[in-house]
């Protein structure tokens, strides 16, 4: 059924229309609060229409109120109203980045929220993109960009796999396929989250799910492959992943993204409801249409929910360097009014086959430097053993920090952020050089003195808040391989209720943190056991992305 271009003029007409279809008064309210608009097909006219759009006015007013909340992030994107869930359909179209996400104008009817950016950081809200009609909810899928259109592929709850297309400059108007659902629930591949791409004249789609592991009856991750010539008639092919040694009983492959990375590899990003955000890297056999996994790992290093990194969305970097750009949502760990989750900063994923121990590179991506305020520099210094050094010049709950630490013989170097003056509240970042798992190229190396050990990075929020409303979370514990003479080099992003830590371009951790005290804005360092060296330290107070958003909206 084609998308209905409807503008509801009055509440009376909305109610009459809704109730005529047997909907309740509450359902009528859903339509009232999320009216669906029709936009022109040229950028100039679209901008004029957006400037007068009542939904965007509502979004701006909502953000003004949300920004008053002490835990609402100012440079990590979050929905302009109510809660949101998985990011979806990250794509680059006509010179702009588009981010979609599970948005809830009125729960529980899941829409695709929509934001646009030129730099992946300064996001501008747009009206909801996909509306649940005839499906009950619009869940997690991706966008495939073609020369003349963008194709959205996603599960429509209650029906099966759905396809919608858009051709206009800002992807404001979406048309659903006449034959939706294109893959009904009762067909193979009809359930679960999906991902679509095209090779030559054929579309391929992944459908995530789980399969019984007989005779136990417990399930394992299952990702099926389907194909189509026309997006409407789909043929089931076979399970897609071979050598899935990283699958765990009870895990699944939700929110799948399958993208080329590096010279000749592919990466499979997904979310496991048992293990959190995961990835597989391997070889794509185009003749058999099989993905052979050769490596794998995690992006979540603690509980699946309660403040940790959640579901991904990703897109191949359009600059052609072989990298993948990915964004995750970060789960809530506290009930808040008007919002809950937020998006991670964009991350650039690279694959270096020649790096034996750290082939996956992870770095922040986007114009983070444009948000920096005045620079604060801390002098290089020796950190005495077992003595907390408070950096009195560094204060704030929305900051970026860059630092390098030589742990020397110290067992643990601890960086505390969002610290109260008495240390009652603090978010701890613990660095342990060479204290992790053993790494070696060969068994012979393991048996010699030339052993290599992972370093360990811990993001600990167990002391971050004195509020009884915060859901406890065990520390995030991640491994990162550092060479024998390599120091810890960190980029730490603190944003009200979220902390992200990037380590040597090789690892990243993220967690929600909710300081209960207004004075929990300090920073300190501690070298445990023996002295360590602070090689350099710079910090910047970060400005809000929503100032930029408001400026854009008025243009």
Helix content: under 10%
CATH class of the largest domain, named Mainly Beta
Indicate how many domains the architecture comprises.
Answer: 2
Shape: globular
CATH superfamily placement of the largest domain: Glycosyl hydrolase domain, family 43
Mind sketching the topology for me?
Layout: H1 11-20, H2 25-33, H3 43-51, H4 54-66, E1 84-93, E2 96-103, E3 111-117, E4 124-130, E5 142-145, E6 150-156, E7 160-166, E8 175-176, E9 183-184, E10 194-199, E11 202-213, E12 218-228, E13 234-239, E14 241-242, E15 254-261, E16 265-272, E17 276-285, E18 290-298, E19 309-316, E20 324-330, E21 342-343, E22 347-351, E23 360-364, E24 372-378, E25 381-383, E26 389-390, E27 398-406, E28 412-419, E29 427-432, E30 438-439, H5 443-446, E31 452-453, E32 455-460, E33 476-480, E34 488-495, E35 498-503, E36 507-512, E37 522-528, E38 532-542, H6 545-554
Parallel strand pairs: 14-18
Antiparallel strand pairs: 1-2, 2-3, 3-4, 5-6, 6-7, 7-8, 7-9, 10-11, 11-12, 12-13, 15-16, 16-17, 17-18, 19-20, 20-21, 20-22, 22-23, 24-38, 25-38, 26-37, 27-34, 27-38, 28-29, 28-37, 29-32, 30-31, 32-33, 34-35, 35-36
Helix pairs in contact: 1-2
What does this structure look like?
There is one protein chain. This protein is mainly beta and about 550 residues long. It folds into two domains: about 10-365 and about 545-555, Tachylectin-2, Chain A, CATH 2.115.10.20; about 375-540, Jelly Rolls (Sandwich), CATH 2.60.120.560. Helices cover about 10% and strands about 45% of the residues. The protein contains six helices and 38 strands. The strands form eight sheets. Strands 24, 25, 27, 34, 35, 36 and 38 form a seven-stranded antiparallel beta sheet that branches. α1 (about 10-20) crosses α2. The longest helix has 13 residues, at about 55-65. The relative contact order is 0.12. The model is unreliable at about 1-25 and about 550-555 (pLDDT under 50).
